[in-house]
Design a protein that fits this description.
Layout: E1 4-6, E2 18-27, E3 46-53, E4 59-61, E5 63-65, H1 67-71, H2 82-99, E6 106-110, E7 126-131, H3 134-142, E8 147-149, H4 154-164, E9 167-173, H5 182-192, E10 193-204, H6 206-209, E11 224-225, H7 228-237, E12 240-248, E13 254-261, H8 271-285, H9 291-295, H10 297-317, E14 322-325, H11 329-337, E15 348-349, E16 367-368, H12 372-376, E17 380-383, H13 389-395, H14 397-401, E18 405-408, E19 414-415
Parallel strand pairs: 6-7, 6-9, 7-8, 9-10, 14-15, 14-17, 15-16, 17-18
Antiparallel strand pairs: 1-5, 2-3, 3-4, 4-11, 10-13, 12-13, 18-19
Helix pairs in contact: 4-5
The protein binds ligand DWN and zinc ion (ZN).
């Protein structure tokens, strides 16, 4: 199996001229947590460089690591993050209230993970999950969510349609940035939807990456860093339309897009259509369709690195104990690019059972259950799961009252 490939053509528009935006060097795949048994083994590392297509202004990775390597034994479980479960419960309720008319309607989720979203509506309509990670799919089945193990494609879509018919709704959260052959997936979605069906997908928004979010959302799983503008180019070419869009405060800030087969109706003057136009205009005003906007991003990341490493060095030199909080995929981009290891963080806590007892890829920091924090009482906590800062700072109020300080690492360093 080819472990990775170099992309010379833009998968959104076919363009072949790119501008290098950020080179994060070589690092392991961010969810490839290391088991104790494999600690002595060398890990696969791959180049992590982000480039801008000069034609459609889509930001994407140049090196595509094989999906088998990334997703086959996957440690990420939606259910490990309470705020994420609540977020998907709200979306699941919206799907049933707004897009499902009959209990016979079929709702399919691509990248259904542990079934957190579909299990919420399993008694309201027909459901089917699709996910490549057979270890995580077992949890979905226990949640009563029938799930097909596999990577979604236009071929798999044909087989699913033959088996269960057309879908009234297809939903895909944190998926459409992860699939290198994005065009084929959209074709599969189009062929699986009823004529008036809706495709709802959430992706991290490139507008957040360049402003309030963190560079650490860049890792091999995320092949694309989407703007609505470049997605529109792709959807227009596939006879699909964007019907609505909203920003949701998850994973920094994600864009939720509502799409479907292009309807031949007269121009749509609805509120939703206005939201789409306003969003495209906002991206233009933010410069997301201009090369210059991306040129300054790498300097911003270098400033962030200098600032955080200076603080950590000062704390270590003064004998402070520092622990990591959360072992997210993004945390591994930060730890590996900033070269932060066990000389700074003696351990990292995480609520995901399958991550506990493992080590972070590359930096090899041990991951332990959250209660270690209360028994070992660090002086500082590096909040690697900064995207849940609000709920975590609330949850850990008692720690903070005892004087434990939280460090928010990106996009600038803050100590709370
Ligand atoms: O696209 C993806 C993003 C959206 O989600 C996937 N590539 C995988 C995943 O990336 P991530 O691992 O960066 O996602 P999270 O949801 O930011 O990961 C949070 C981590 O923090 C989880 O491992 C759970 C942990 N956690 C914790 O230990 N205590 C989370 C919360 C809320 C907590 O209180
Ligand atoms: Zn392009």
């Amino acid at each position: 199996m080819e472990k990775y490939s170099v992309k010379t053509l833009c998968r959104i528009c076919g363009g072949k001229d790119f501008m290098l935006v950020l080179d994060l060097g070589e690092m392991p795949v961010s969810n490839a947590f290391v088991s104790p048994a494999r600690l002595t083994e060398k890990e696969d590392i791959f180049p992590l460089t982000v480039h801008l297509c000069k034609l459609c202004k889509s930001l994407q990775l140049r090196y595509a690591v094989s999906s088998e390597l990334i997703f086959k034994n996957y440690h990420y479980a939606t259910g490990a993050s309470r705020p994420l479960v609540e977020h998907f419960n709200t979306l699941a309720d919206e799907i049933v209230e707004t897009f499902v008319e009959s209990p016979r309607d079929l709702v399919i989720e691509i990248g259904s993970n542990d079934g957190s979203l579909l299990s919420r509506i399993k008694n309201k309509c027909r459901i089917l999950g699709i996910d490549p990670a057979d270890n995580i799919v077992q949890i979905a089945e226990q949640n009563g969510v029938p799930t097909r193990v596999g990577f979604f494609s236009s071929q798999l879509a044909e087989r699913v349609r033959a088996d269960v018919g057309f879908a009234q709704v297809i939903v895909a959260n944190n998926v459409m940035a992860h699939i290198e052959n994005i065009r084929d997936v959209f074709v599969g979605v189009r062929n699986l939807l009823t004529d008036d069906g809706t495709f709802i997908f959430e992706v991290h928004w490139v507008g957040n990456l360049l402003t309030d979010g963190g560079f650490d959302q860049i890792y091999h799983e995320h092949f694309y860093y989407h703007s609505l503008s470049s997605l529109k180019i792709l959807l227009d070419s596939l006879d699909m339309e964007i019907r609505d869009v909203k920003l949701v405060p998850i994973h920094g800030e994600s864009m939720r897009v509502y799409a479907g087969k292009t309807r031949r109706s007269l121009s749509d003057s609805s509120m939703a259509a206005t939201r789409v136009e306003d969003f495209l205009q906002r991206e233009k005003e933010m410069g997301l369709t201009e090369e210059n906007t991306y040129k300054s991003f790498s300097e911003k990341v270098e400033r962030n690195k200098t600032e955080l490493l200076a603080l950590l060095a000062e704390l270590v030199a003064s004998g402070k104990k520092i622990a990591g909080y959360g072992a997210p995929a993004k945390g591994n981009t930060l730890l590996n690019y900033f070269n932060i290891g066990t000389d700074t963080l003696s351990y990292i806590t995480d609520t995901t059972p399958s991550k506990q007892g493992y080590y972070t890829p590359g930096s090899r920091i041990p991951i332990v259950a959250p209660d270690a924090i209360y028994s070992r009482m660090p002086d500082y906590i590096l909040l690697l799961s900064w995207n849940y800062a609000e709920s975590i700072l609330e949850k850990e109020k008692a720690l903070r009252e005892k004087g434990v300080k939280f460090i928010i690492p990106v996009p600038t360093v803050r100590v709370l």
